[in-house]
Amino acid sequence: MKQALRVRPLDPKDGSFEELGTTKNVSQGGVYFVTQRAVYYEGMRLSVAIPYSASARQNYEYHGKVTRVEELGNSQRGVAIRFVSSAAMKSSKF
After folding, report:
1. Domain parsing of the chain, residue ranges
2. Lowest CB count within 10 Å: 33, 35, 44, 68, which one?
3. Which architecture characterizes domain 4-91 according to CATH?
4. Which helix (H) or strand (E) element contains residue 5?
5. Torsion angle of C-alpha atoms 19, 22, 26, 28, degrees rounded to 10
6. pTM, rounded to two decimals
């Protein structure tokens, strides 16, 4: 099932970026998406808003950890994230 998502790093050492994308796979325990960014690494802690809507006043966020990064070719990477906890409803503003 494809759903819109927003991904942001939780640790300041990983920089300050926001990635908007679409999931390739979603389960109760995590998500998998494809990106061109080379910043993701196994163990990286992330905030994941899913389903994400820029027009929503609030989006539900999960805290997750990258469990796998796959090189897919053509500068594409598959990123698997396991949810470790859910955060409260958060503002959609960065």
Report:
1. 4-91
2. 68
3. Roll (2.30)
4. strand 4-9
5. 50
6. 0.86
